[in-house]
Amino acid sequence: MTQIRKIYPKIDPYSLRLRLTVGVAVVSTLGLANLAFWTGWKIQQLLINNHKENIEIIAQRLPRDVQIYSEMMPSATALQKSIDNLTETNTFLWVKNTDNQILAKSNNWNQLPNATTTELMSLGEMTLKPRIDKVGERYFVLCGGAVPVKGKILGKLFVVQDVTREQKMFLVMVQSLSIGSVITIVVMSVAIAIYIKRSLQPLMQLSQMTSVISLADLGQAKLYLDKAPSEVKELAQTFNMMLARLSQSWEQERQFVSNVSHELRTPLTIVHGYLQSVLRRQTNLTDMQQEALETAASEAERTIRLLQDLLDLARADSGYLQFCLEECLLNDLIIEVAGMAEKYSDRQIIIENNINPITVKADYNRLKQVLLNLIDNAVKYSEPNTPITLKLEQQEQGAIIQVSDQGYGIPLQQQSRIFERFYRADEARTSSIGGSGLGLSIVKTLVESMEGSVTVRSRLHEGSTFTITLPKH
Ligand code: ADP
Q: Based on the domain organization, do 169 and 305 belong to the same domain?
């Protein structure tokens, strides 16, 4: 299916490319069709019209000639003489009386086949204006009129001229013209489509280049098109200026978050310290005072942690987060982390680890922070009686650490978003569980800064597994 789509890319009816192609093709087709029509009409005029004029003249002259001759001779002879005078090759004349009987006719009928002659002779009426008609296999220009002699109508005049050769030539020309026009339109449409596609290429390039700019390289990103039209180059220039402004404001925002977090964390740490020392030293506090101080201390601690997370993220964004990379024995690390977690969470932590020592190049303390974050989540989002498993193994792609719980799980559609800043899945439940939505983004940032990766696999009501992969060095 995808293969087919690649070969026949979907046509977007709203695309500029399609609209321009259709627009230009329609205008060219109309222009060409008009030209072809006009040429056809002109050819017909050249080939046929003089014949029409010719027989119209004959039809007008014959009654006059008959009138003149009948002064000198009987009208039947005058009629025949006039017909003979006006007869030309390919021009046929005859006169019928009111009972449709032939009174006189030209003497060249032997040029025509008998069947055509009979068919022509059987015609009853003829228009005054010449017109083309097909009689048998041949084409004729036909025209008629009355023959008055001495105030009396002698009969009806029929004048025809054989234009078979001209008409056939005209039809062949029209046919060639139509075929030529259709071929030209098709070729022109294809050429137009290709030309428009190529003309829009720089815009597509610009869009592709813009789409790959990430937040991290906003500052260095520069759009440059070598062989683009000046309008597109100008657009790229405008984009570059906008990118510079965006980068600047993004940097200012980062700086602001970093400064605010830093400025708030220090006094809050002092407040927290005082609260802790009051709680530890004072023995004469009432229950209410004790509870109030404990709430204040725990809220202060939570806020300090949040500020620390924000500070870490802001520093990571600016590339100022320090990492002390060294050889770390992961087997020791997970035992230490499990011990710490067990102490503060009162939860059973199962370690699955084969005896082989696994070492990676990483920042030991940052890695500890990552695992504690994941275990903290596993504790928060599962029932107290369920265990948490820490698994360590060496695989082809590197060292793997997995943190699994048998908790509530994460809905599939939210799994790709939980690593975003301040994103919290399942609002109803998470609102009653403490947290800021920054933990997993810190995990991702730290792991990726150590060239590793983190993924999640989760099923609702069965549990979640977070997998950290750290590359071999
Ligand atoms: P929070 O401070 O809310 O825990 P995190 O960034 O650590 O923020 O996690 C983001 C969201 O991912 C959480 O709000 C929670 O809905 C979901 N989540 C993280 N870990 C787990 C887990 N082990 N089990 C179920 N849901 C989890």
A: no
